[in-house]
Design a protein that fits this description.
alpha+beta, 4 helices, Protein Transport Mog1p, Chain A, 13 strands, single chain, nine-stranded antiparallel β-sheet, globular, 221 residues, two-stranded antiparallel ribbon
C-alpha cells in the first residue's frame, strides 16, 4: 500500500508531462514571449466553425474566415491552409509563381493579451532577418506604413533581400535565401497583437501581393 501511494506523484508527473509535450512554443517575437494557446477552431460565416489546422494534412483555404485575438480575416482561395504548427493561429502555403521553385508561406501568430512584444520591436526584428547584397542596412530599404483598416490599427512592412531569419521553428536555421521578400503586418487586435508574416521568393511574394492586401482589407473585429 505504501508503494502505491508513493507512486501517485510519479504517475501524476508523467501524465502532466504527456499533456505538456503537446504545448506550443512560439517563434520568438520578443526576448521572452509568454506562450498562450490559440483556439483550434475559428468562426465562419453563419456561426459554424472550421478547424484552423490539425494533423499533417493541408487543404485549400477556400476563402475560409478565420480569427485570432479578436481579429477575423478571410484567406485567399489560392492559398493552402497547412497543418498545425507551434503557436500559430494559421499557416498558409502560397503557391510558387513564375520560375520560382519554392512556395511562399504566410504565418499568422497570436500569443495572447499583451504578449509578443511591441510593434516597433517586431518590425526591427523582421528587418534584422534580412541582408542586402550591397551591404547597406536593410532598414533603409524597408517600406513601412501605418493605417486603420475597419477600425483596426495595422502596421505593415515590405522588404526584400537575402533572408537570414526564421529560426529553427521556421525550418530555416543556418540557411540564407537570396532573392527573398517579406510582407508583414501587425494588427492591433482587441485581445492583443496579431502578426501576419508572408515570406518567400521575390516573384512568388510579388504575385501574392494583391492577395495579401486583400486579406488585410478583410480584417474585422
Amino acid at each position: 500500500m505504501r508503494l502505491i501511494y508513493s507512486s501517485i506523484p510519479l504517475i501524476a508527473a508523467i501524465l502532466l508531462a504527456g499533456c505538456t509535450s503537446n504545448g506550443r512554443v512560439s517563434e520568438p517575437l520578443s526576448s521572452s514571449p509568454v506562450p498562450s494557446p490559440t483556439s483550434s477552431a475559428s468562426a465562419a460565416p453563419g456561426g459554424s466553425t472550421i478547424a484552423v489546422s490539425h494533423g499533417d494534412g493541408a487543404r485549400a483555404s477556400g476563402s475560409a474566415s478565420t480569427d485570432a485575438g479578436g481579429v477575423k480575416w478571410t484567406a485567399p482561395k489560392r492559398w493552402v491552409l497547412g497543418p498545425e504548427k507551434p503557436m500559430r493561429a494559421a499557416t498558409y502555403r502560397v503557391p510558387a509563381a513564375g520560375a520560382d521553385k519554392e512556395d511562399g508561406e504566410c504565418a499568422v501568430f497570436f500569443f495572447g493579451p499583451g504578449q509578443g512584444g511591441g510593434v516597433e520591436a517586431n518590425i526591427e526584428r523582421w528587418i534584422g532577418q534580412f541582408e542586402q547584397p550591397d551591404g547597406k542596412p536593410s532598414g533603409e530599404r524597408a517600406k513601412r506604413q501605418k493605417e486603420m483598416i475597419n477600425g483596426l490599427g495595422v502596421t505593415t512592412i515590405d522588404l526584400g533581400g537575402t533572408y537570414a531569419g526564421g529560426g529553427p521553428m521556421m525550418g530555416a536555421a543556418g540557411q540564407k535565401k537570396t532573392g527573398y521578400r517579406l510582407l508583414g503586418a501587425i494588427v492591433d487586435g482587441p485581445q492583443g497583437a496579431v502578426f501576419f508574416k508572408l515570406t518567400g521568393p521575390a516573384a512568388t511574394v510579388a504575385a501574392a501581393r494583391g492577395e495579401f492586401d486583400g486579406l488585410l482589407r478583410s480584417l474585422a473585429r
